Structure prediction request, 200 residues.
Amino acid sequence: MSTLKTNTIDSRSGTTITVPTGKVFTITDNSGISLGGTVVSSTAAELNVLDGIPAGLTSTEIGYSDGVTSGIQAQINAKGVGDALLATAQNWTAGQRGEITALTSAATVTPDMADSNHFSCTMAHNITFANPSNLTAGQTGSIFLTQDGTGSRTASWGSYWDWAAGVAPTLTTTAAAVDRIDYVVRTTTSINAVATLNLS
Prediction:
């Protein structure tokens, strides 16, 4: 290993320091080094900023860029070929499905439409299904209502639930009976709903 000790490197002479391939040029005391008047220290944060990289970027995050070329947008576009895009009509070529979210039986149940499109509830109470939260026009789905082992459970509905002729269905009250409520959210205050009763 060679050691260079000097107080001054005169740039007027076009000084060049050549580091052989595979070797490392190490400055053990960099307190006096500056670039463009800015002192360079050996902290990772300052070296990151020097390279134009955010100071908080970790080595793992830097690794995400491995393999990304300067044509990043072209790579993103190529990756997206065949993927679903929100503003584009889609022809689905495989089965699509949504989970059925269980609602907990209580005297009042308030579905959160952000949780799911489809819901189920085993009714252990006479339930008021209140106006749901997070209503967005165009959402559709089903609610499966199952009587518990006792049966005779009834349902009433908040003001946002709209039924044919303004009449809510009378549920099947036999123990373990299943009814299905299908709905379409027409506006943020109107849910058009229909019932299919006594599924078996």
